[in-house]
Each structure stands twice: as C-alpha cells, then as structure tokens.
Amino acid sequence: MTRQRRFENLALTAITLLAGLIWIFPLYWAFVTSIRSENRVVSEGAGLFPDEFNLSSYVDALFNTSLIDWYINSIGTSVIITAVVLLTGMMCAYALSQMQFPGRRLLYGIVLASFMVPAQALVVPQFVLMNDLDLINRWGGIILPQLVVPVVIIVYKQFFDAVPKEMKEAVVLDGGGDYTLLFKVYLPLNWGITTALGIITFIMSWNAFLWPFLVITTEDMMTIPVGITQVNDAFGVAYARIMSVALLAAAPVVIAYLIFQKRVTEAVMISSGVKG
Amino acid sequence: MAMIRNRSRHRLVAYSLILPFVAIFALVFAYPVIEVVRMSFTDAPLIGGGDWVGFDNYARLLSDKLFYKSLVNNGYFVLLTVIPTTVIALVIALAVNRLSGRMQALALVLFFMPYVLPVSVVTQIWAWMLDFQFGILQPVIEFFTGKPVPVFKNPFWVMPAVAVVTIWWTNGFNVLLFLAGLRNIPGELYEAAKLDGATRRQLFFKVTWPLLWPVTALVLTLQLILQLKIFDQVYLLSEGGPFNSSYVLLLMVYREAFQLNHGGYAAAISLVLFLIIVVISVLQFQILRIGGKDK
C-alpha cells in the first residue's frame, strides 16, 4: 500500500468514526443531562461535558414512578411473545417446508400476503375483539395481536428448505416422527437463526408503542415505552428526571444489542431478504 | 391400506403443526381484516353494534377536510423522509464498508444504536434537545433563522423536525441493508474493473450502483410503507398540531375511534390507509423492478 493510500484510509476511518460519534450525540447528551441536578440542567453555563455526578434523578425515576411495574410488564409480555412467535413459527414453517398436505400452498400464500397488511389498520377491530375477550388492561391483550409475525415463518422455511435430506434419514429409520425431526434435528441445526429471530422479535415487542398504548389504560399495567410518556405529565419540565427514565427504559434493549450485536445485524439482514 | 393410513396420519401431524399459528392468525388477524371492512359500512361506536349505513362513512370521508389534510401530510412526510434516509444510509454504508474489522463494528454500533431504542425514548430525548428555552440545538437553529424556534409548536417546522427525528431513529436499519448489499458484490468485479483502468467514479457508477439497485429498491419500498404508517412520533412530539399541521391518517383513526367513539368511521379511514399501502407497495415494487432491469 502506498503512503498516500494509507493516509486516505486513516482519514476515512477518522471521519466515519467522528460522524458516528456525532450521530450518537443525542444519547450522550441524554446521559449528561441525567446525571445533573435539575437546576444545573437549565442553568446558563452548563457545558457539553459531564460536570456533576448526581444520581438523585435516577433514584427518583426508580422509586417515584411505576417504572418497576412497567419493567415487569414489558419483560413478561416480550418474553411470552418471543417464545410463542418462535415456537408457532418454527412448527408452521417445518410443515410448510417438509410436509405435504392439502392447503399447503394456500397457507404459504396467505403468510406472504399478510406481509402487506399494515397491522396498524387493524387496531379498531382488534380493540373490539380484546374487549369481547375481556383482555383490555391485561397482559393477554398486549400479547395476542403481537403474535402474528409472518417473517419468522418465511425465514425459518428458507433455512429448513436448505437442510440436507440425509440429516432426516437416521431419525426416520429409528422410527422418529416429524416432531422428533423438528425438535431433535431441524431446530438444533438452526440455533443461530433462532437466536437471531428471537432477539429481533424481542426488541420489536419491547419497543411496540401503538398497540400497548391503546389496549392499556391503567398506569400499573403499562409497558415501558407507554409508561415513560406518563412521566412527562407527572413531572412537568424536569429534564434530568425525564432523561433518567428514558435511559433506564432504553437500557435493556441497548445492553441486549451490545451483547448480541452480530446476531442482530445478521437477523436484520436475513429477515429483510438481502442475505440468505 | 397401510399407505392410506400412513398418509392421513402424515396429514394429521402436519395440521397439528400448523394449527397453533393458524388459530392465532385467524383470531387476531384474519377476523379483524373482515371486521374492519364490515365496520366501515356501519355507524358503530367503538364498542357495541351499529346499523348498516352503506357507503355513508366513505361519502363523509370525501367531504372531510381533515381527511385531505391528513393525506397531504402523509405524502409530505414521505417526501421528507424516504429519499433523504435512503441517500444518508447509502453514504454511511459506503463509508462503513471501507473500514476494517473492529473499526467497522464500532462504526456500525454508533450508527445502528438509535434503531433499538423505544420510540418514546427517542422522542423524549429530541424534545429535550429541541426544547424552546434550554434545548442544546436551539443555538444551531438560531444560527440559521436568527431566533430560537419552538419546532414542534410551529406549523412550518413541525413536519421537518419529526422527519429528522425519524431519520435519526430508523436510519441504522437501512445502513444494515445497504451494507449487506455491498458485501454481496463480488470483489473480483472491482479487481477486473481496476485492471481495465476504471476510475473510482466509474467503479461506483458502473459496478456498485447497478449491483446495489435491488437493495436500493427494497429500502425505498420498505421506507415508503413504513413512513405512510407514521403515528408514534407525531403523536408523541406534536399530537398532530399545531393547527393540524402534522395530522396524519393513523392519528385520525385514533381520534375518531378512541376519543370520539366513531368506530365505523375510523374503520373506513383504516381501510383507506390499508388500500393505499397495498396499492403503493405493489405498484412501487413493479416500477422499481422494471427500473432495475433497464440498468
């Protein structure tokens, strides 16, 4: 590599990383704000750098709001949604990929078509349905409409299609049925994609706003994204506290993302069809 | 005989495998699709039956000024977000793609991070950054306009401001798609083009851009559909105001159904949004595919 090329690469790296740091600045600023006192936040000379380490707004956020309830609701509903979506998705995809039955092509067509239907256009009848089922203000009401994630089936089917047929034979010779095949062969072979889809589904349901916002009206049943909007009303203009609550709300997904970065990247690429 | 029994057993197993998904799908997806159509022809409140009113809701929609306002705002928001976010994401992906190993991973984390945040966290942070009195971005706005602007309370600024917030939040997703597309381009193509003496410009326009077109088309389509469905950010940042200058279709659905108790009318609006999205996604997909073939 010539000296000029090396310098160019170095400059490009520096510029890109600098742009990245500017891009992430809002999060940094939220953090700096959250560790200041309310007075400091709105005072004239407050600079760009952390000059106080005041955790009182975090204490406030944890103990003077229903944040703990919201955490429990968000974790509970997101875990259940993720588990059910993965399980029903892999079962359905296995049947579509490996079995013959009347209605198979129709079912796959419906799964593909449902991709185009915006779930937001269904909130009115879904709300009526949840009311009929007496699920307003309950976990069930938050969970049920979020259980249809067609892309999980489409991705699983792709991966199951690609499993070599020889993998089946040993199990079939031993008299194993399709359930054995799915859970003892196909699933273990596809742990990678299962984790990736699981993380994406979890993040999606953790971040869901519109539906939980509609189906929950009591504060103690709210999920994190809906609950934290209440803090504004309760605190008035108290930005240190609002930022602390926002950062506490974001922490689980941010940590999950940092741990599973590669998987998240992979999942986004695969589920949008640009990488198979 | 054994064959037949075997086959029906096979089918039974297959049906048992699809049953959980199909049952949930029928209950919370297929049934609501039918219901939203049926409700749109009634004068039902949100909860409780209503009477059949034929096309009354649709007639009312055509004479509802707020409906047109919302349609226009939806279109305006699409203009403000779709192409800008595609261009920005492409530029970032090209830059990130040239970094090596760890630096690339780090840059990707920085650009992708906002995408994993809940929408209300995003809006809270930006509402603070753009706060009229204390917002850290007000000096920047002042630099361009000469005075601080309460962006979410100003009819001119509200939509561009919501667009900026939206692009910041969702751009990482598009960066990832472009990056995947760039990684799919075989390196030999560049080597061959370089041997032929291609300049960097030529490399981009003759190799990268045409081969990246399917991904670009995908990003454009996904963004168009996504941005038509905008609700969260507008509701949280401006509630459709001021003077309905950021009112959009889903906000109208929400108001009519959940605040004014007009279930039937809200269903009609939902159905219009539904149809717009289906038609546009089919159309745009076709157009982009043809565009891709020409190149």
Automatic annotation (TrEMBL), chain A:
InterPro entries, per the entry: MetI-like (IPR000515), MetI-like_sf (IPR035906)
Record GO biological process: transmembrane transport
One matching Pfam family: BPD_transp_1
Membrane-topology annotation of the record: Multi-pass membrane protein
Gene Ontology cellular component terms for the protein in this record: plasma membrane
Subcellular location as annotated: Cell membrane
Residue intervals of the ABC transmembrane type-1 domain: 71-260
TM annotation in the entry: 12-31, 70-94, 106-127, 139-159, 191-214, 234-260
Keywords in alphabetical order: Cell membrane, Membrane, Transmembrane, Transmembrane helix, Transport
Similarity section: Belongs to the binding-protein-dependent transport system permease family.
UniProt-listed PANTHER family: ABC TRANSPORTER PERMEASE PROTEIN MG189-RELATED, ABC TRANSPORTER PERMEASE PROTEIN MG189-RELATED-RELATED
Full protein name: Carbohydrate ABC transporter membrane protein 2, CUT1 family (TC 3.A.1.1.-)
UniProt source species: Alloyangia pacifica
TrEMBL record, chain B:
Subcellular localization: Cell membrane
GO terms for cellular component: plasma membrane
Membrane topology summary: Multi-pass membrane protein
A Pfam family matched in the record: BPD_transp_1
Keywords of this entry: Cell membrane, Membrane, Transmembrane, Transmembrane helix, Transport
TM ranges: 12-34, 76-96, 108-129, 157-182, 203-226, 265-285
GO biological process, one term: transmembrane transport
Chain ranges of the ABC transmembrane type-1 domain: 71-284
Gene3D superfamilies for this protein: MetI-like
InterPro entries for this protein: ABC_transporter_permease, MetI-like, MetI-like_sf
Family, similarity comment: Belongs to the binding-protein-dependent transport system permease family.
Family matches, as PANTHER family: ABC TRANSPORTER PERMEASE PROTEIN, DIACETYLCHITOBIOSE UPTAKE SYSTEM PERMEASE PROTEIN NGCF
The protein's name in its UniProt record: Carbohydrate ABC transporter membrane protein 1, CUT1 family (TC 3.A.1.1.-)
Source organism: Alloyangia pacifica
